[in-house]
Every structure is written in structure tokens, then in C-alpha cells.
Amino acid sequence: MLYGILLESVRDGICLNYGRQIWKRIVQELNFEHETFTTFGQYDDSLVTKIAECLSDILHEETSDYYMEYFGECFVRFFTNYGYDKILRVAGRHFRDFLHSIDQLHDSNKYSFPKMKSPLFHVLQEDQYGALLQYKSRRQGFQQYIIGQLRECGTRFYNENIYVKIQENISTNQCTVVTFRVNFNNSIINEISKNLHPFPNLPNLTSETFFKIFPFSILIDSSLCISHMGKSIKNLFPIDTILIGRYLNDIFNLIRPDITLEWNNLINYGRHIVFLMENRIPLKSLNNFNETPRINLKGQMKWLSSWNLIAFLCHPVLSTTEEMLNIGLSVHDLNFYDGSSEILISGIQHHRQLHSEIDKQQAWVSKLQTSKLELKQWREKGRHLLYSLMPRHIGIMLQQGIVPNSICESHKLVTVLFCYTLDFKDVIQKLSPTEIVQSINEMIIIFDQCTEKYDVFKVETKADSSYMLVSGIQQRISQRRISDRSDSSDQSEIISGLAIDLLKESKKLINKITKESFQIKIGFHSGSAVGGIVGHKNYQYCLFGDTINTASRITATSDIGRIHLSETSWQLLKDSMYFETSPRGKIPIKGKGEMETHWLINSKEAFIKEMNKYESITNNNQNLSSLSDIHSTIVENNQRKKSLPNVINKRTSFEGICPFSYHK
């Protein structure tokens, strides 16, 4: 796991250099829950490499390694906003000092990032032209990321032009071990060697003086057995516990660095690496606590050539007085000469305050996550509300910032349906206002439930319960359908299937005066129309043209309980394998003279089978609104690699298209 500050730096770098639209595309491609990350939240290690690969696939400009290196540079630039650059600036006077101090810098951030699994950096060798730096980590694929960090640190903080290449890579599936050749001006190493003065010959240090100066110290021989041990450490274990002569690994567990306990490793890594060990065997406990007392010892490994021993010069890692009491330590047991007791007392005083602030921060992070989730939910609700008021492609245009009243479009062919409730005007004169609203609401709910299964747009609902729908507008989104036929024949089938459903469901609407079903007339007509948004505050999408007037008059001349259609709509429907029609003949239409019209009789067996198949699939997959969604998703996936569409235009789920339209 890694902290969110790394991912936030990646997001910041992408938005800064490639734009927010690219980042939104990545968020959608990788199915991130939010567009941002919490600084102290924990995330999967693989997310950084996934983002680099996704960015490479989208831009088609550079490899993922290039972007990983860029992300490393972004991290150094990003954390300067949090004040961490001050720590790097005091790490050393020269870049070589910084390389030797990387491990200690990670250790200094343990309070801010207590769960950080920091990598291990170790300078193997250096000369006047640079150094060999070994990188070791449990994470996979971060080599280029480290190169970017090193280069940016050298340029930003030390004014050095750094060249980094991979000298050796002996990584396995479990661990990454890479040796970098870091070239920079390291001539300071020669000056340091010249300025070294010979040490005066002093008498040998006695063991009594040594352990008095370092009460928390362990001497280790070449077989990695404990040769001697400071009194303060001995007192932590029960009196009858044998410590001297036993293997170090039997008494203590090496937590950091992540290396094998070998003599040469202790000497090599001990020069600049901080070691952390924890007791394996039980300590003596002076209090009746339920938990087993533990102690961590932190310090450096130093080789004493005159004794041929390695001295682990350490101190206990303590944060509270309760820990000291639990393991039987007092201030008197600490090193008197290096200020450990003062540091510990000062640290304990600030520890509670620090933990209190961390708890507040964690609570804030948790609250932020909840707020982000609620914001996402409200955005979805707002989007669904917008798409219920406008055709989907119009809603997308509004989201992109297009001025509403500038939207005007011509539809070459649409099919408009009206549904009239004849006896509703008489009913409202005899019902109370509450009953009127209830009756209208029941009717609209039933009709809306029918339209949800079809790719139609509800234009309006009037107070007299007249219902207006149009098909052919939503299909302006390209490549949505599976059908090989034209959109015109498809939209007539959509309206026909919906009309049958409306007529069937309308029988459930009971007139509270007559106690019988309402008298319903349905009719539809196909033709051209003009659409656009009208209004300044309350936007409304309206359709204009002779097609709307003709559809209204076709409906008005229908019979009660029947579906009336014009000659134009019948021409689109006549070859359908799903519906049965019959001619009505010529009838007078107001403003049109005599027109040839037809009746929509019923649906055929093929329609019923397709509806059953549609319902079966939608029940198994609630995320699909129709069978055509399957095809739409495939089309979009195939087009991703061809171009970079606007993220907003990508639909996660479509409203239902006619479920039987994918047959030829």
C-alpha cells in the first residue's frame, strides 16, 4: 500500500501538463471512485503504474516508463507544497550527502506517515564522478519513478545536472533490487579526504566506559552471536534468560533494513542505514497488562576493528510513559551523555498532542470520503434529472458549456406520438384538488414506467393528461444500434411497441366517477421537425413543425381504445415482422384534407419473444437498460484507441432502445 500523496502528485502533474480532460479520461478508464485522492489515505501500489500505462495508451506519444519518470519528478515538485522540501534542503551540503541520508529522511517521516513501507537506499560505492546507489523495495515497477525523483532533487535542491541509469537489476517477483549509476559532480569527495587530519593516539577504551556511554548497545561477533550487552538492555529481560552467546536473530527480529543478517551486510549497510530491531523473546513485565510488552531498538551498526566486533549503538523507541512503565524502564536507564532522556521527555509531551491532531485529521479524511461519495451520488441524480428533462445529447451539450438558447437542430425524420384521455376534463370538475393531483400522478407514473423501456423522449405532459412522446431524437448519438436497418424503420417499431404498452397499461387507470377505465386515444405520425431549448430560467426542449400538428390530429381522429397511425408511419412499419396493421382508408384531417391512415392492431409472436428475452437479460444485469447497451459498450471500447473523445460524451448506461431492434 502507498499513501495518497503519491497519487495526488501524479494527478497534479497530469492536469498541469496534459489537461484535466485527460485526467478525467484516466479516472473513467480505470474506474476510480473519485477524481482526487486523500493525502493520508492508503491505496494499492499498482495504481501508479496503471495510470502510467493508461496515459501511454491514451496519448500514444511515449512509453509508460517515460511517464513513470515524469511522475517521480512530479512528486518532488508536489511535496514542496507541504513543506517537506525543507527536510531535503538540510539533508546535506552536497548531493552525495543527500544520497547517504535518504534512508534517514524516510525514517524522519514516520509520524506523518506511520504505515509507510519505505524502500531502502544504500550507497555501495562512490568516486569523483558519482556513485552507485542500490534501491531495494517490495514494490514492483518503480525504477523509472526513482530516476525521476533523483534527477528532480539534484536539479531543484543542489543545482546538479544528474544522469541516472540502471547499472544492474537482480529483481525477483517478491522484491525489487536495482543498482543505479548516478553521475554528478562528486569532486567534493577528494577535498574531504585531503582535509582529514590524522587522529591522535589515545588509550584504548575500556568496556566499562563503553557500556557506560552506550547503555543500550549490543556487541556482535563474526558468527552473529551476542558477545556483550549493555546493562539497560539486560534489565529488560527476565533474570533467568540467557542472552550472551546466543544468536542475535534468536533474541531480536530485524525490521529494517530488509536484508539478511550476515556479517558483511551489517558492516556495509551500517555506515549510513538506520537499523530497527524488535525483541523476539518475552520481556519482563512489571504491570498486569493483557498485551505482551514489546520494545523497538533503533540505531546504527559500527564495526570496531580493534575488537573485531560490530556494535549496535541503539536507543529504545518510546512514545508514552505507559510504555516505559510496562517494560520497566526509567529515565535513569537512558543514555546520560547524548540527551536521549531529554528527547524522550520532550517527545512524550508532544506525543499526545500529535496523536490528537492525527486523529482529527483521520476523522476529517473519513468525512471527506463520505462527502465525496455523497457529491458523486448527487451528481448522478442531477445528471439523471437533466436527461429526463432534455434529450441525452442536448444534456451533454449543456454539460460542455454550450449556451442553451443557442441550441437549435433540424430532425430529418422523427416519429411523434400523442396519447389523449378524453373523459379526464369531465372528471376534474367533480373531484377535489387532492384527488385530481392523485389521478394525474397515477396516470403519469404508469405511462413513464412504459417509456423507460424504449428509446424515446417525453416532450411534455399537460394538465388534461395528454401525453406527447417522440422517437428518433435520442438516436442522434452515433453507432448506438445493432440493427442493420435504417433508423427510420427502427423508430416506428419503437413507437409501435410503446403504443401497445400504453394502451394495455391504461386499462389499469380507473375513472373515480364512472368506476371504469379512462377513455384513451393514441396516434402517431412521422416526419421532419425542428427542436431547440426555449426559456431563460426554466429551460424546456420543444419540437416545432407540421409533423407535431399532424400527429395531434391523427390522434384526435382515432377511436377510443385504438392506435391510429398515418400513411407515413405505416410506410416505415409495413415490412415489420413484429406488428400487425390494417388499413382504415381515407379520412378527413383538419387542415390536411383527406389522408390515408391505418390501425395498429397488435404485436406478433416475434415481438413477445424479444420482449421476454429483453426482460431476462435486464433482470440478470441491472446495469444494462436494454440489449443494445451490450453493443454500445463494445463499440465505445473499440473506438477508444482510435481517438480521444470528450470524457463527458461517454455514456455509462443508455436508456432502453427497442429490445427487438437488433434483428434484421
TrEMBL record:
Gene Ontology molecular-function annotations: GTP binding; guanylate cyclase activity; heme binding
InterPro entries linked: A/G_cyclase, H-NOX_domain_sf, Heme_NO-bd, HNOB_dom_associated, HNOB_dom_associated_sf, NO_sig/Golgi_transp_ligand-bd, Nucleotide_cyclase
Domain of life: Eukaryota
Enzyme Commission number, as recorded: 4.6.1.2
Keyword entries, A-Z: cGMP biosynthesis, Cytoplasm, GTP-binding, Lyase, Nucleotide-binding
Enzyme category, top tier: lyase
UniProt-listed Gene3D superfamilies: H-NOX domain (3.90.1520.10), Haem NO binding associated domain (3.30.450.260), Nucleotide cyclase (3.30.70.1230)
CC per GO annotation: guanylate cyclase complex, soluble
One annotated GO biological process: cGMP-mediated signaling
Compartment list: Cytoplasm
One Pfam family matching this protein: HNOB
Domain Guanylate cyclase: from-to ranges: 415-555
Signal peptide stretch: none
Name listed for the protein in its UniProt record: guanylate cyclase
